[in-house]
Specification:
The complex is a heterodimer of chains A (about 280) and B (about 350). With about 280 residues, chain A is mainly alpha-helical. Chain A contains twelve helices and no strands. Chain A is globular and about 75 Å long. The chains are: A mainly alpha (about 280), B alpha+beta (about 350). Chains A and B meet through helix 8 and helix 9 of A and strand 6 and helix 2 of B.
Chain lengths: ~280, ~350
């Protein structure tokens, strides 16, 4: 059946509009980051400055603590993503496959942790971490992020495991595998999309987290990049150009990460939607 | 190859019993079919033999060795699942060799085993394909190949043909039978399809409500069903069941059906006069003939031509019954037929508990 060309045009137009709307802030970020300081306030609102320069990027890389923040963020987000995914995979498998005492309550408890506004937890969290020497440290941030991301990631992984028929691991166990070998050789490879989705989700959550990082970290040495961005805000002025340049740079690892996992991700987010 | 002995095996989930003490001895090389409606416990029993379900009480032994506490991998059995359960990320060859690799079989032996199995199942051309690229019948074959490559002590089949269309099912049925003839392996096959059960089995185990109803050869179950359940379950079209009262007078045993009509029975039964019974008669044992041949005149309310013959729907004395005849001309255009019953072909069941009754010697 041929579609009405008017409908096709409208359809494309709607998609284009949607994408433009979603990406416009990013575009603005890019635009400001390449606008030289002297044009920033003098040209008014323009879609593209009359002259561009990379001076903000050069400054951010050479003269600010940004590379340090950047590295801290990579360490924190990367470790959190890996640890959370590992824990969530094992917990999700258990919730998906085994019947055990207290399963209902564990699930309910995990759900409960998702219901509190984070702001409520900052003070007690600080109180716990401070005597342990975990404030102002990357380890402390990793612990906190892991704790907050595990419940949701577990539900996510559980739903992926639920989508894999039990018959497969039963067949493997009859074929001569232990449950763990069946998990590793049969179930895990089939869950790669789910693992990629979970990794991506947790990585971005940790990458852009500001609240806890701001409260638990005070010096520049252990600051992550969202906290670092605030150093561009001084008492009397905001250095928008450098801030935006730093923002663009911070997008790079996240973008790279998703580029790496997107092959699995598309599969993962739609897995089980249709009989395959 | 090995014998399998099941002694008083029970299965309960909490307070719900799904299997009420099953005793079954399966001989070496025997093909046993567990048959029954859904929820009768047949799959549970199979999974208990496989080690996928725990045995609540009782004992299961494979080759003389108690396996109650052995994990599936140490029982040396192979299983074909209804869903085939092929590993989607492995090729056909990898699927079939997985069990051998886990056992650290030398590479040459693996290759030889796979070539042999693929040849036997007509999969030679497909060994490098993924399951996704196979048809239903081919997937079914791979699942069988995975089972036969390692010559296990026993094969377990869990409704392996249920996902195939009718023609393919018929074809695979024959292949399974031929395979069993070739390999002579002890096999336990679960199905709800009584035709599969009849055609494949050396012995059928008919189950209902977690209880074994009858164990015997297919023809045993067909010709001498032990109770109303087996009588109704085995055979298609199903056996006619006619409520009646047993009468014994003047040395002749009869069944008195609705309206006082009397059907002669083969000999006296060891029950008192006036016992309520159920008379069972298979459609092909209801003799129908053109009017005038003698017997009870009955209108034909419906004709189901099967090509091979016709199924006639009649009501010679109240309750509707079916008759199967090879004479396609009978019952056409609403013509009546004459119905007779051979006393030797009538099954008599006690109405109280559904048990089969045999004439006293």
């Amino acid at each position: 059946m041929r579609r009405n060309p008017v409908l096709t045009v409208l359809h494309r137009l709607a998609i284009g509009l949607y994408i433009a709307f979603a990406l416009f802030p990013l575009y603005w970020l890019l635009k400001v980051s390449v606008t030289p300081n002297d044009l920033l306030y003098s040209e008014g609102v323009r879609m593209w400055p009359s002259r561009t320069s990379l001076e903000h990027y050069a400054f951010v890389i050479a003269n600010s603590d940004f590379p340090r923040f950047f590295l801290n963020s990579v360490i924190v987000s990367g470790s959190t993503a890996v640890i959370v995914t590992l824990v969530a995979a094992i917990a999700g498998y258990a919730l998906s496959r085994f019947a055990f005492r207290g399963k209902y309550w564990i699930t309910a408890l995990m759900l409960l942790t998702q219901m509190f506004p984070l702001v409520m937890l900052i003070a007690p969290m600080f109180k716990i971490l401070s005597p342990l020497g975990l404030t102002n440290s990357l380890t402390g941030l990793i612990v906190v992020y892991t704790a907050f991301n595990v419940p949701f990631a577990t539900f996510l992984m559980q739903s992926f495991f639920d989508g894999i028929p039990r018959d497969l691991e039963e067949a493997a166990m009859i074929d001569g595998a232990t449950r763990f070998v069946a998990f590793r050789q049969i179930i895990l490879p089939l869950t790669l999309p789910g693992i990629a989705a979970t990794l991506g989700f947790v990585f971005t959550a940790a990458w852009s987290e500001l609240l806890f990082a701001l409260m638990l970290i005070s010096g520049n040495a252990a600051a992550t990049f969202p906290v670092g961005l605030l150093t561009f805000v001084s008492k009397f002025s905001v250095d928008f150009g450098q801030m935006m340049a730093a923002g663009i740079l911070a997008l790079i690892p996240a973008a790279l990460f998703f580029l790496l996992i997107q092959r699995y991700l598309v599969q993962g987010l739609t897995a089980g939607a249709v009989k395959g | 190859m090995a014998a399998i002995d099941i002694t008083a095996a029970r299965k309960s989930y909490g307070s719900v019993d799904v299997l009420h003490g099953v005793d079954l001895a399966i001989g070496d090389g025997e093909f046993v079919v567990l048959v029954g409606p859904s929820g009768c416990g047949k799959s549970t029993l199979l999974r208990m033999i496989a080690g996928l379900e725990e045995i609540s009480s009782g004992e299961i032994a494979i080759g003389g060795r108690r396996v109650n506490d052995l994990p599936p991998k140490d029982r040396d059995i192979a299983m074909v699942f209804q869903s085939y359960a092929l590993y989607p990320h492995m090729t056909v060859a990898q699927n079939m060799s997985y069990s051998l690799k886990l056992r650290r079989t030398p590479k040459e032996r693996i290759t030889a085993a796979i070539t042999a199995a693929a040849g036997k199942l007509g999969l030679d051309e497909l060994t490098e394909r993924r399951p996704k690229a196979l048809s239903g019948g081919q997937r079914q074959r791979v699942a069988m190949g995975r089972a036969i490559v390692r010559s296990p002590k026993a094969f377990l089949f869990d409704e392996p043909l249920s996902n195939l269309d009718a023609r393919l099912r018929e074809q695979m049925r024959v292949e399974i039978k031929r395979l069993h003839k070739d390999l002579g392996a002890t096999s336990i096959y679960v199905t709800h399809d009584q035709i599969e059960a009849m055609t494949l089995a050396d012995r059928i185990v008919a189950m209902n409500g977690g209880v074994v109803q009858q164990v015997g050869s297919p023809l045993d179950l067909y010709d001498r069903p032990a109770n109303l359940f087996v009588a109704g379950f085995i055979g298609s079209p199903a056996m006619n069941m006619i409520p009646a009262v047993y009468r014994f007078a003047d040395g002749a045993a009869v069944a008195e059906v609705e309206g006082g009509h009397r059907l002669p029975l083969a000999g006296p039964f060891p029950v008192p006069d006036g016992t309520t019974v159920v008379i069972g008669v298979r459609p092909e044992h209801v003799t129908v003939a053109a009017p005038g041949a003698g017997g009870r005149r009955a209108d034909v309310s419906l004709v189901e031509p099967t090509g091979f013959g016709s199924i006639l729907h009649l009501a010679p004395f109240g309750p509707p019954i079916k008759a199967f005849t090879l004479d396609r001309g009978l019952g056409r255009d609403g013509a009546a037929v004459d119905v007779t019953f051979d006393p030797a072909r009538l099954h008599v069941f006690a109405a109280a508990d559904g048990r089969r009754m045999d004439p006293a010697p």
